[in-house]
Design goal:
The protein is built from twelve helices and nine strands. It is α/β, with parallel strands linked by helices. It has a seven-stranded parallel sheet with strand order 3-2-1-4-5-6-9, with helices on both faces. A two-stranded antiparallel sheet has the order 7-8. Strand 7 and strand 8 form a beta hairpin. The longest helix has 39 residues. The protein starts with a helix and ends in a 13-residue tail after the last helix. Bound molecules: NADP nicotinamide-adenine-dinucleotide phosphate (NAP).
Length: 350
């Protein structure tokens, strides 16, 4: 066995290099042609049934509007039912022929099953599942009062998507459907104080890449990895070190600091457009893809920049005086980089 591994150690690098040299250029050309075809013949979702989790605010809410404007029939789920009804009313106004609202806590497997069952019972089919519901934690591992209080991050972000996918899978297979999953560029960027969030988003990527292999061509999957986008999350709503949901602008500024925060309407439009074109991955804004290149080729530089901008403090006593936040305060970056909606502390409630 050792001899085989010694042989593989010697043979795998040159084999990989020459295989890439030979196959990658024609494959890239083939994908380019396919992309042009898909742009012309992108999926028409008019009359199709789409279940969106976390549709009461932020990206999920605007994905609902995008699908509605294309004439899709919608099942909207989240915990704040009144907000969902408002989103549903707007969806009906802008073109959806039928919208139902389902109160769901995605961290509960029974709730996820009931949501899928209710959708299929009402519409008799399910074409797209958008796994969007998510929360974030912002606290360092060592600051957490009681580590188990942070379990909801994994329960909602990861398990919520897994449960819903499990129950939706047979219906999606029947319709040759699509799953859109909201991961994050945090799945590769090691942003401090968000270790569990980052891990939950990385877990989603690996889970859905494996599901692609299991589903084959029966169910298509689009993995979305946005940068910072305006929503309640970037308003500073997250789980604190006490395990309580808080809205904290100062900590948000430490995390987001000099990153521009994208408009949610533009992002939702780009996600739906690219998913209907059959893209396997969508990163919005698209320049964030470059951070992946940095991460693969020079991970030490990515770690160093994150530590400098988000952890290193200057010119003050407070742990909040991080380099990134201080620069932003000095140049008045908030007004330029952050949309007005995330500068308010007001979170919509039921
Ligand atoms: N905004 C960003 O910068 C950004 C970047 C990358 C990825 N993402 C991802 O995008 C997705 C949407 O987030 P967002 O930015 O739009 O934030 P958001 O405005 O806070 O929306 C989160 C949604 O998830 C729902 N949700 C939370 N916990 C839930 C639970 N237990 N059961 C059911 N629904 C639940 C919320 O509804 P209720 O509270 O009514 O239940 C809400 O509709 C998340 O997965 C997030 O991680 C966001």
């Amino acid at each position: 066995m050792d001899l085989v591994n010694i042989f593989m150690n010697l043979a795998a690098p040159p084999f990989t290099f020459f295989a890439m040299l030979l196959f990658l250029p024609p494959w890239t050309f083939f994908k380019f042609c396919l992309r042009i075809l898909r742009t012309v013949f992108s999926e028409d979702v008019s009359g199709k049934v789409v279940l969106i989790t976390g549709a009461s605010s932020g990206i999920g809410e605007h994905l609902a509007y995008e699908y509605a404007s294309r004439g899709a029939r919608l099942a909207l789920s989240a915990r704040r039912e009144d907000l969902l009804r408002r989103v549903a009313d707007r969806c009906l106004q802008i073109g959806s022929p039928d919208v139902i609202v389902i109160r769901t806590d995605v961290s509960d497997a029974h709730d996820c099953k009931r949501t899928v069952d209710q959708t299929v019972h009402h519409f008799k089919r399910l074409d797209h599942l958008v796994n969007n519901a998510g929360i974030s934690q912002v606290c360092m591992l060592e600051e957490a009062d009681e580590i188990t209080n942070l379990r909801p991050v994994m329960d909602i972000n990861f398990w919520g998507s897994v449960y819903t996918t499990k129950f939706a899978a047979p219906h999606l297979r029947n319709c040759g459907g699509r799953i859109i999953v909201l991961s994050s560029s945090a799945s590769w960027i090691p942003l401090p104080r968000m270790s569990l969030y980052n891990a939950s988003k990385a877990a989603l990527v690996q889970f859905y890449e494996t599901m692609r292999v299991e589903f084959g061509s029966d169910v298509k999957i689009t993995i979305v990895t946005p940068g910072f986008i305006e929503s309640e999350l970037t308003q500073g709503k997250f789980l604190s070190h006490e395990g309580k949901m808080v809205v904290d602008h100062v900590t948000r500024d430490m995390q987001v600091n000099l990153s521009p925060v994208g408009k949610v309407e533009t992002t939702a439009r780009a996600i739906v457009k690219q998913a209907l074109r059959g893209e396997r991955y969508v990163t919005e804004p698209s320049w964030m893809k470059m951070s992946y290149v940095w991460k693969v080729l020079w991970p030490e530089a990515v770690e160093w920049v994150n530590r400098l901008m988000c952890m290193t403090t200057i010119g003050g006593e407070s742990r909040h005086d991080t380099v990134g936040k201080r620069i932003m305060d000095m140049v008045g970056g908030r007004g330029i980089l952050y949309p007005a909606s995330i500068q308010s502390s007001e979170i919509k409630s039921d």
